[in-house]
Write a structure and sequence with these properties.
With 280 residues, the chain is α/β, with parallel strands linked by helices. The protein contains ten helices and eight strands.
């Protein structure tokens, strides 16, 4: 039996809400500044809606709860909003790709609630079609430092051994093509060894381009475990260590793309587009 809303219809309240749903992170700084950057941009853009956030990673939610940070999953958040009499819901994910996490944790959850609200719509991830590659590349370029001759940029994406990276060909290769078309000295790679281009491919390109110094950034919404350990640490297997062993100097930027205002604007645009479509 469905629960009816618990707030009396005679009480004036907002019936519109926006939920920003993220994978999540156990790094407090990344949660506040990376995910929080996107959340605040959407909150400001949709000031007419009450704001809520949720996560899709149950491991992250459990670990955060152990230290007193409580973030609900999307299904629980939607259930709560139904009980509180919200009728018009906008869900905007902060996921980068239309991959398994977005499909299984966001779209399938929303499908279960499609008859629970008068209107329930969802925005697209950051990269959802072929046109997004050049747009995202230009947005990412706004966070790069002024480069001197012999300097380059390395972006470490997550990647996946599954088929998520094969959307529109190869997501990371298409981003690489966009940077190349812009004539920017950027090398894009993935931390997943079974995906491409992996660190070996990155090192090969780096050798061909003969950069003397590279500035390294995570191509991820948050600068979490992968950024702090796999990308830029003193560990023997980190990208920093492997690159410096070739004689190339490095600078590491432990900031997620979620705190990039240009990237935040793209998520806002996806959310605005979502509000113009019909109920799912």
């Amino acid at each position: 039996m469905k629960k009816s809303c618990t707030i009396s219809s005679t009480v004036a309240k907002n019936t519109k809400a926006v939920i920003v749903v993220s994978f999540g992170t156990t790094f407090d700084d990344a949660r506040i500044k990376d995910i929080g950057g996107i959340e605040n941009a959407i909150k400001n853009a949709f000031a007419n809606r009450d704001f809520f956030s949720s996560n899709t990673s149950y491991i992250v939610m459990k670990r955060n709860a152990q230290k007193g940070v409580y973030i609900k999953d999307l299904a629980t958040t939607l259930t709560n909003l139904k009980e509180l009499c919200y009728t018009d819901i906008l869900v905007q994910p902060t996921h980068i790709l239309h991959g398994e996490e977005y499909e299984k944790k966001v779209l399938e959850t929303i499908a279960k609630f499609k008859n629970e609200f008068s209107r329930l719509v969802v925005g697209n991830p950051l990269i959802s079609n072929k046109e997004d590659f050049s747009i995202v590349a230009a947005a990412l370029a706004t966070q790069f430092p002024l480069l001197q001759p012999g300097e380059g940029i390395i972006l470490m994406g997550h990647g996946s051994p599954r088929d998520n990276n094969k959307s529109f060909g190869n997501t990371y290769n298409n981003l690489q093509k966009s940077f190349d078309a812009m004539k920017l000295p950027v090398i894009v790679g993935t931390v997943e060894e079974d995906d491409s281009p992996n660190i070996e491919a990155v090192l090969n390109v780096l050798a061909m381009r003969n950069y003397k110094t590279v500035h390294m950034y995570p191509l991820m919404v948050v600068a979490g475990d992968h950024a702090h350990n796999d990308m830029y640490s003193s560990d023997e297997e980190s990208w920093k260590t492997k690159i410096e062993k070739t004689g190339v100097k490095t600078s590491g930027y432990l900031v997620g793309i979620g705190r990039n205002p240009a990237i935040q604007s793209l998520y806002v645009q996806h959310a605005i587009i979502a509000t113009s479509v019909k109920q799912l």
